[in-house]
Write a structure and sequence with these properties.
Helices cover 19% and strands 37% of the residues. With 197 residues, the chain is of the alpha/beta class. It has two domains: 6-60; 66-195, no CATH class. Strands 3-5-8-11-14-17-20-23 form an eight-stranded parallel β-sheet, with no helix packed on it. A seven-stranded parallel β-sheet has the order 4-7-10-13-16-19-22. The longest helix is centred in the N-terminal third of the chain and has 14 residues, at 47-60. The mean pLDDT is 93.
Length: 197
């Protein structure tokens, strides 16, 4: 699917379970393209619009679209995108919610959660004041730190350490060079947990 996928007005109404899409319905009274609707929610950025965009991505899934991001442009913003993002610099954002992948050439820092439908890869660290969640894997050449939970459908791998105030859960393996820490004392892996490699 691409961002040009057309979404009918009736479908838009059907997923508004929290009554947060009124502005969307007014803007797109006959429906609209997937990417245009998500972009509208991201641009006007109220908490209700951001929530509506994430519900739409959860319902329809990811697209093949790719956005290239330069980190200094999103410091006080939420990033919501149905496709995948490539981050060229250190990224500071309020939150990130993407349907596909996050590929970062450096580090990622957010004031809230980071969510990716598939994987997160960073050449630096991944740090969130909320949770970090992916459908597949999380890998970092730096540390992976979260003030909430860290959840991955498959593997969690860090070249430094993994640190969460909540639980750390992986469907596959959890591996870290220097340490794995959970303030809740909950570290769960479907395969193995290893420190030092």
């Amino acid at each position: 699917m691409t961002g040009d996928y057309f979404i009918s007005y009736d479908f838009l109404k059907s997923i508004d379970i929290y009554s947060c899409g009124i502005k969307v319905f007014n803007k797109f009274p006959y429906g609209g393209k997937y990417k245009e609707i998500i972009d509208y929610c991201e641009e006007y950025g109220s908490s209700k619009l951001i929530l509506y965009a994430t519900l739409l991505i959860d319902k329809l899934g990811s697209t093949k679209d790719v956005r290239i991001i330069y980190g200094d442009t999103y410091k006080d913003c939420d990033i919501v995108f149905a496709g995948s993002i490539i981050v060229k610099d250190i990224l500071y954002a309020r939150s990130i919610y993407v349907g596909g992948n996050i590929d970062a050439y450096n580090s990622i820092y957010t004031d809230d959660s980071i969510n990716a439908g598939r994987y997160i890869k960073a050449c630096g660290s991944i740090e969130a004041r909320g949770s970090i969640n992916t459908g597949f894997s999380i890998s970092s050449f730096g540390c992976i730190k979260s003030c909430g939970n860290i959840n991955a459908g498959h593997n969690i791998e860090s070249d430094k350490y993994i640190d969460a105030r909540g639980a750390i859960n992986a469907g596959g393996k959890i591996e870290s060079r220097y340490g794995i820490m959970s303030s809740e004392g909950k570290v769960n892996a479907g395969e193995h947990i290893r420190i030092g490699f």
